[in-house]
Every structure is written in structure tokens, then in C-alpha cells.
Amino acid sequence: MFRNVVTDVFFDLDHTLWDFERNSALTFQKIFIDYGIDLDLNLFLAEYVPANLAYWKLFREGKIGKEDLRYQRLRTVFDAVRYRVEDDMIHSLANAYIEHLSSHDHLVPNTREILEYLKPKYRLHIITNGFEEVQAKKMRNSGIDSFFDQVINSEMAGVKKPHPAIFRLALERTRALPQHAIMVGDNLEADILGARTAGIHTIHLNVHKEPPHEHGVIIHDLREIKLYL
């Protein structure tokens, strides 16, 4: 479908290539032990996963900053499960979480297979709303950094996906034309609708079980990319 059109493939990182939920769970498992948090991890994660997505949406929309994101997602969850934690501990846990998160290296199933398939045929890049220092460590520690020519993040762009400016910056830095570029991501709003406003083709890796839509190709496994590229 896109084989004779696309020259550049842009990927989101978290939830698309890097297995955020699994790596996040392992990080909380470690820091709960380190800080003596006596709380059932599954109970915590049941609240944390949707809360984290909600706070990232607020962050994307510019309604909260980085520090608020890191603090509020923990405070909200501990309050929801009625586990008393002082603010000083919340800040310590937030810092420890960021420190250890990128040390885990689990990838979304078939990530390496699809990158090895695409690399000889296309130029590969990352567009991420994640924080520069954390995302670089994630890619390096999981051994996928060498696949990508350019990594564009929201800090260098000054805006976050789905703002079209971050996609325009990505096109500028890669010297790719929008009609010859494709974005692969898990987030319908940030990755798919954002890229389409910049004229970029899209493939939606629907890992969040969102309802069907008509905003481009939908897949449920990265290997399905081979049907289109």
C-alpha cells in the first residue's frame, strides 16, 4: 500500500516499541521494596495505568508541567487506594521511578523483527513526547537506538504531539516530504490525528483497544506493518 510511496518511517516510542507497562511495573516493584511501600502492586497498577494516561493527556495539552505530571499521577493513585504517603515520599518515589524506569529493556512484541525488516528499505526515526534524557536511555538500554537516524522530542520542538509543529520539525530535520512519510504510533490523538494534520500517512497500533475509526490503517501487532511497507 505504501511501499512505492514512503521513504521515511516515524515511530512513537512508549507503548509502540518500548513496552512501557511492563517496564513500569518492574520499576514500581523495585522501588516499593527499596522504600518499604507495603502495598499490593496489582492493586496499585490497576489505578496507575489509567491515571498515568490521563495525566499524560493533560501534559500534552499544556495543562500541567513535567513536575506536576510526575507528582500528581502518584499522589492521585495512592489516595485512590487509600494508602497514606507523605509528600516527601511521593517526591522521592517519583525521582526513583524516573531514575530506574529506563534501566528496563522489554520491548513490545516483534519490535526488533519489524525494525530489522524496515531498516534496509526506509529511513527510520522517532517522534516522542517523552523526556529527552529518559527516552535516550530507554532506546540505548533496549538496544534499538542504532536503528534510528533522527530522534525528535517535544522538548526540542517546544510543543507536544499532536501539535503539527513537532511533525513539521521532524520533516525538516529528516528532509522528508509529508507525502513520503508515515507515522506509526499507539495514541490516536497524539500520533495519528497529529501526523495527519501535517499530511503524513499513518498506521495506528491499536494496543489500547480503541473502537475502529477511519483515520488511516489500524493494526494490532507490529508484524502487520509488513502488509503495508
Order of helices and strands: EHHHHHEHEHHEHEE
Contiguous uncertain segments of 5+ residues: none
Secondary structural class = alpha/beta
Q: How many beta-strand runs?
A: 6
- Please, how many helices? 9
Spatial extent as radius of gyration: 18 Å
Percent helix among the residues?
40-55%
The proportion of strand residues reads: 5-15%
Strand order of the largest sheet: 3-2-1-4-5-6
What name does the CATH topology of the largest domain carry? Answer: Rossmann fold
CATH superfamily of the largest domain: HAD superfamily/HAD-like
What does the overall shape look like? elongated
What's the average pLDDT? 95
Termini separation: 7 Å
Number of spatially distinct domains: 2
CATH architecture of the largest domain: 3-Layer(aba) Sandwich
Report on the biggest sheet.
Answer: 6 strands, parallel
CATH class of the largest domain: Alpha Beta
Element layout with pairings:
Layout: E1 8-11, H1 20-34, H2 41-60, H3 66-80, H4 87-101, H5 111-118, E2 123-128, H6 132-141, E3 150-153, H7 154-157, H8 164-174, E4 181-185, H9 188-197, E5 201-205, E6 217-219
Parallel strand pairs: 1-2, 1-4, 2-3, 4-5, 5-6
Helix pairs in contact: 1-4, 2-3, 3-4
In short:
The chain is an alpha/beta fold. The protein is built from 9 helices and 6 strands; from the N terminus they run βαααααβαβααβαββ.
Keywords:
229 residues; alpha/beta; Rossmann fold; DNA polymerase, domain 1; 2 domains; 6-stranded parallel beta sheet; 6 strands; 12% strand; elongated; Noncanonical pyrimidine nucleotidase, YjjG family; PGP-like_dom2; HAD_sf; 5'-nucleotidase activity
